[in-house]
Design brief:
Elements lengths: L2 H5 L3 H23 L5 E4 L6 E3 H17 L4 E4 L11 E9 L1 H6 L5 E8 L2 E9 L5 E5 L4 E3 L2 E2 L12 E4 L5 H14 L5 E4 L3 H10 L4 E5 L3 H13 L3 E3 L8 E5 L4 H8 L1
Parallel strand pairs: 3-4, 10-11, 10-12
Antiparallel strand pairs: 1-2, 4-5, 5-6, 6-7, 7-8, 8-9, 12-14, 13-14
Helix pairs in contact: 2-3, 6-7
């Protein structure tokens, strides 16, 4: 796409392209470090790890976004918010699935969402190992490697493959285990793969039929939730409920899963 052609796109589509390009470059760097990560710190608990690559990836993403969109506000996982001078903002997860990354497991992603006046309007999530790029712009659909995708699923929960994830806090995990105990007999099966951003994208393309998780952060779901919604999935975010729940499913099974999850 030429510069002239890009200028004809809506602001949301232009930001989608920026997010996709920067996330692709960051994922290439993260991929080069996959399998030999170095843990540097922990955050909310001893199991909530930070690697040197997390830090380097976020620095790279911030620099690239500011080169392309000077004056942007940036909210990231690893560093303090950077307050800009324009209405454009970014929500960055430099590595979603850090524990997987630390162990050399393949479910790892880079996630970047774009905002205009604090409203999420575009996003991109890149599968670090597989290289697949999911992206979306508000009101303009969702894509995988540039090809439109749609959330499709079974007519009932008992035929649905459901993904979930768990908090780092032990007490929260005990409660989550109770929820899984209710969901598992009601669905086809459950998967726990370690990247909320990719799980949401997989709902978007029909690779899983539903995803739910509590206690995840805005940078975990910002891009993926938009991609799922633009693909036609039914999405509910923590600001929509009092239980800090993120849930996205194909439309046919949302009500049934939501009732069981509670």
């Amino acid at each position: 796409m030429t510069v002239a052609e890009a200028k004809l796109l809506s602001p949301a589509r232009q930001l989608e392209l920026v997010a996709s390009d920067v996330a692709r470059s960051a994922a290439r760097f993260v991929r080069s470090q996959h399998g030999h990560a170095t843990q540097t710190n922990t955050k909310s608990s001893p199991t909530d790890v930070v690697t040197q690559t997390d830090l380097e990836s976020e620095r790279f993403i911030r620099n690239e976004l500011l080169l392309r969109c000077p004056g942007s506000t940036i909210q990231g996982e690893e560093f303090d918010d950077e307050i800009g001078t324009t209405g454009t903002g970014w929500i960055v997860d430099p590595i979603d699935g850090t524990v997987n990354f630390l162990y050399g497991l393949p479910v790892v992603s880079v996630s970047i969402a774009a905002t205009i006046d604090d409203r999420i309007v575009a996003g991109a999530v890149v599968d670090v190992v597989g290289g697949e790029i999911f992206s979306a712009a508000q009101g303009e659909g969702a894509r995988s490697n540039g090809v439109p995708i749609q959330s499709v699923g079974p007519d009932s929960l008992d035929q649905a493959l459901v993904a979930t994830g768990f908090a780092y806090d032990a007490d929260a995990r005990a409660l989550e285990a109770e929820v899984v105990g209710r969901v598992l007999p009601a669905c086809r099966d459950i998967r726990c793969m370690g990247s909320a951003a990719l799980n949401l994208c997989w709902v978007a393309c029909g690779r899983v039929d539903g995803f739910f998780e509590r206690h995840i952060k805005t940078y975990d779901y910002a891009a993926g939730a938009l991609i799922a919604a633009e693909a036609g999935a039914t999405v509910e975010l923590p600001h929509d409920n009092a239980s800090d729940l993120t849930i996205a499913t194909s439309s046919q099974v949302f009500d049934e899963l939501r009732q069981i999850v509670g």
